[in-house]
């Protein structure tokens, strides 16, 4: 949301829990993002991890409704709350033309919570991130399985029926975690000696906990980030299932890369094994390998070192072209065990939302 004539832009994060009175010293004249005696909120750039103090602001939010699988009329939230943060914080590290960050985490003034409350929606939202710059994806708020909205997914009910669900844990920071017990490369399991897949107790903050916590679902990392102990074993097992002569010098930030022409037979499937044996998130094809440069394909997983906040942080590249349902009402997350490509679908044609 752009604020004309101001050096501040609207930014919202899942965390806004400070209780501080904000005083603006930048100007003698009040303007958007610069008022005295307003509620101060600590805002954070999820890409750079930098933080700064903004102010609690209120405006009208307009968002498209849906009618079945079609776009419906615009609807409004007349008193939408957000943090108005300094431009240097909200724009840094973000793509061109991006005007801030929209938090989907669970906090009192996050977008999902405000929409659930204002419209009386079921506490559920679904994401489908497009891989292709010229194609649209979608974020849908409310019950995707609503019988009164049974054409939500355009001619693709098989995608809904094939969703696999696993328990969802929400941290104190409002982030979403699921339990992964092992990674499987073809038929080979990757299980570190000390289990960094475990999710810490919800009674302690992740920042305060010395344990390495579970699997974080995040779009702030472009690629999946693994704790160093997992990354070492995982890449060893993966490399043993690939032709050795095809391996080439790694291209940062990746640690394992191959000559694309020498792996024309494809790469082995990678499965995230959940808390139940039948709950498996398969990562393959374009979700697995990244064209890092001309003729070089790299495993799309990054070594996060030994101080990661999660054992696994499932990144945006691995989330692309997959319908992910965050069912907050039932504390579970649903996904397709394979990408939409296995159903002959993409995020752009899964929903017919281009036509009113």
From TrEMBL:
InterPro entries on file: Aspartic_peptidase_A1, PEPTIDASE_A1, Peptidase_aspartic_dom_sf, TAXi_C, TAXi_N
GO molecular function per UniProt: aspartic-type endopeptidase activity
Xref: Gene3D superfamilies: Acid Proteases (2.40.70.10)
Coiled-coil zones: none
Residue span(s) of domain Peptidase A1: 1-336
One Pfam entry name: TAXi_N
Record key words, sorted: Disulfide bond
Protein family according to the UniProt entry: Belongs to the peptidase A1 family.
Protein name: Peptidase A1 domain-containing protein
């Amino acid at each position: 949301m752009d604020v004309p004539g101001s050096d501040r832009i609207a930014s919202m994060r899942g965390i806004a829990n400070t209780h501080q009175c904000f005083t603006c010293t930048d100007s003698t004249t009040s303007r958007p993002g610069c008022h005295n005696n307003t509620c101060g909120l600590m805002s954070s750039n999820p890409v750079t991890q930098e933080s700064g103090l903004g102010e609690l602001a209120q405006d009208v939010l307009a968002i498209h409704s849906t009618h079945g699988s079609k776009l419906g009329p615009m609807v409004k939230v007349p008193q939408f709350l957000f943090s108005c943060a300094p431009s240097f914080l909200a724009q840094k590290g973000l793509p061109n033309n991006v005007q801030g960050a929209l938090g989907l985490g669970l906090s009192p003034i996050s977008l999902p919570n405000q929409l659930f409350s204002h419209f009386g929606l079921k506490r559920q939202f679904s994401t489908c991130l497009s891989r292709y710059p010229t194609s649209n994806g979608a974020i849908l708020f409310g019950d995707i399985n609503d019988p009164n909205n049974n054409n939500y997914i355009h001619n693709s009910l098989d995608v809904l029926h094939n969703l696999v669900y696993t328990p969802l844990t929400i941290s104190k920071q409002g982030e979403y975690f699921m339990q992964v017990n092992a990674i499987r490369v073809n038929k080979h399991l990757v299980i570190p000696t000390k289990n960094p897949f475990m999710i810490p107790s919800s009674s302690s903050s992740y920042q305060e906990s010395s344990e390495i916590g579970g699997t974080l679902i995040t779009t702030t990392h472009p690629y999946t980030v693994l704790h160093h102990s997992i990354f070492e074993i995982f890449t060893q097992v993966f490399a043993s299932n690939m032709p050795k002569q095809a391996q080439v010098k790694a291209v940062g930030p990746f640690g394992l890369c191959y000559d694309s022409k020498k792996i024309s037979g494809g790469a082995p499937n990678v499965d995230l094994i959940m808390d139940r044996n039948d709950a498996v998130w398969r990562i393959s094809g374009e979700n697995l390998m990244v064209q890092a440069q001309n003729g070089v394909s790299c495993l799309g997983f990054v070594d996060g070192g030994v101080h990661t906040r999660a054992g696994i942080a499932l990144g945006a590249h691995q989330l692309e072209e997959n319908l992910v349902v965050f069912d907050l009402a039932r504390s579970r997350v649903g996904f397709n065990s394979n990408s939409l490509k296995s159903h002959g679908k993409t995020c752009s044609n899964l929903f017919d939302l281009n036509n009113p």
